[in-house]
Design brief:
Radius of gyration: 19 Å
Order of helices and strands: EEHEEEEHEHEEEEH
Structural class: alpha+beta
Strand content: 25-35%
Helix content: 10-25%
Distance between the termini: 29 Å
Shape: globular
Number of helices: 4
Strand order of the largest sheet: 1-2-4-5-6-3-8-11-10-9-7
């Protein structure tokens, strides 16, 4: 494939943020999606431009699943997908940036498909992401699907036009969370006596809010989990995040403060919780790997 797919099929507004380039069916409920990754990106490429970020793989898998739902399972474009679980393990030693944009393929198998009448209402899919024949990541994703009308009722009248995000508080130093620009820091500087971070929700961010939303997007929550892990281990520490086992419990609202806390679970694993008004909106177990081991494997 030599061109990107229509951006509407992956729920993106910007062509530059649309990564799949095509797809084909390989067997019943099995597909291969081709993609292309940019060599320069404010979020999905390391500050020194030598490696792709693991969350680029997450976004590619998300877009691939959305694409197939619309094209192969005939889900109308006005329907909404609600993530329930997103589990992924990546291999950073295979995420180096080369002399040309990387062109991964995503092999996807759908299962647990449920319909109400002819309409798909939920499913699960597993994805293997391969780059130059090497397994880059394995993912397991569960989601539900609702019509625009049902989604509106579910959201109780909340829309992008009627909900206003809270003011964005000052952030942690960018270097502390593996970022180059302060605009990409999603964790606020804790106030005196606080141990948790407030999530910085900047609706003007061109990647997280590629288009207006009525809630905090899942990719922003995952970025907060990654940055929380880096803030605990240190940007120059001996471990880096490589896996994310995430459960989304409820919508994260734009007009409520979201608090991010992390707990060291041992063995290089951190548990990150996001809460609003005392209720857990998501939880993510972040697995890390030794930086030196990855460099050695390269």
């Amino acid at each position: 494939m030599t061109a990107g797919v229509p951006r509407q099929l992956v729920h993106r507004a910007a062509i530059a943020e649309t990564f799949p380039t095509g797809w084909s069916r390989t067997e019943t409920d099995r597909f291969r999606v081709s993609a292309q990754w940019p060599r320069v990106h404010c979020l999905h490429v390391s500050p020194d431009r030598t490696a792709y970020d693991p969350l680029l793989v997450v976004e590619t898998v998300r877009q691939a699943g959305t694409l197939l739902n619309h094209t192969e399972y005939q889900v109308p474009l006005d329907h909404q997908f609600v993530l329930q679980e997103f589990r992924i393990t990546t291999s950073p030693e295979h995420l180096d940036i080369g002399p040309a944009p990387a062109e991964p393929v995503v092999d996807i198998t759908f299962s647990d498909i449920r319909h109400r009448g002819k309409r798909l209402v939920s499913a699960r899919y597993e994805a293997d992401v391969l780059l130059d024949g090497e397994l880059v990541a394995h993912a397991d994703v569960a989601f539900t699907c609702t019509s625009g009308a049902v989604f509106s009722r579910l959201r109780g009248g909340r829309t992008a036009a009627t909900v206003t995000a809270l003011p964005v508080p000052p952030g942690l130093p960018a270097v502390d969370v593996g970022r180059e620009s302060a605009a990409d820091v999603v964790l606020a500087l804790p106030q005196q006596g606080q141990k948790d971070w407030q999530l910085r929700v900047d609706t003007g961010h061109a990647v997280f809010f590629d288009h207006p939303l009525d809630h905090i997007p899942g990719m922003l929550l995952l970025e907060s989990a990654k940055q929380a892990a880096l803030a605990r281990t240190g940007p120059d520490g001996d471990r880096i995040p490589v896996s994310f086992d995430t459960t989304f419990h409820q919508f994260a609202e734009l007009d409520l403060p979201t608090w991010i806390e992390s707990t060291d679970e041992g063995d290089g694993t951190l548990k990150v919780l996001g809460t609003q008004e005392g209720r857990t909106v998501f939880e993510c177990v972040v697995g890390t790997a030794e930086r030196s081991a990855i460099l050695y494997e390269e």
